[in-house]
Amino acid sequence: MRAFVYALLAHGLIGGLDVVVNHELIARLPAQPRAARELSLHSARELIFALLFAALAWFEWYGLGALAIAALLLGELLVSCVDTVLEPQVRLLPPTERVAHVLLFVNLGVIGALLGSVLLEWWKLPTGLAPTYHGWGSWVLSALALGALGWSVRDALSAARTSDNKGTGQGERLALVSHDQNA
Q1: N or C: which terminus of the chain carries fewer CB neighbours within 10 A?
Q2: What is the three-state SS of 107-132?
Q3: Which residue numbers in the chain have pLDDT < 50?
Q4: What is the per-residue pLDDT for 165?
Q5: pTM, full prediction
Q6: What is the dihedral angle through the alpha carbons of 16, 104, 139, 142, rounded to the nearest 10 degrees?
Q7: Region of 132 on the Ramachandran plot (φ > 0 left; ψ -120 to 50 alpha; else beta)
Q8: Cα(19)–Cα(41) distance, integer angstroms
Q9: 137-159 residues labelled b (16+ CB within 10 A) or e (exposed)
Q10: Are 32 and 106 in contact (CB under 8 A)?
């Protein structure tokens, strides 16, 4: 199995834990009126990773296909940069989420380095797809793609619902750790 596959698998694991623990259990983002923009960004990120996981699970992308994969990586970097600026304006982040985001950013750099060198090789080949098999990694990447796609749809629907509610005042941030609104 190629090294970039391990980095993608790690990203899926860390990102999935971040979503479930920090976004769902701690912050309860889908229920927060001011979280519409953040949920929209998360939906975009999850869609990007669904595409990356699915695309790289079973195929090598040659020629212009390598550019498509690179464009997805750059799109993820852009989404993450915007999200990093937006999140602290909307809510206080728990330490677990801050640590997860550091790990995800570091791992995104690892993915960029490992996959970047592969994409340079693929770029030199005639445009086309070549089947590949990463053993169990192909199957796990496929499962991660389905999970990320499902969560992308869920976050998009939650963003639409919360933006319809228009949220709270401009200067307020979401309460964090306590589920008790008086805390």
Answers
A1: C
A2: HHHHHHHHHHHHHHHHHCCCCEEEEC
A3: 167-183
A4: 59
A5: 0.87
A6: 70
A7: beta
A8: 13
A9: bbebbeebbebbbebbebbbebb
A10: no
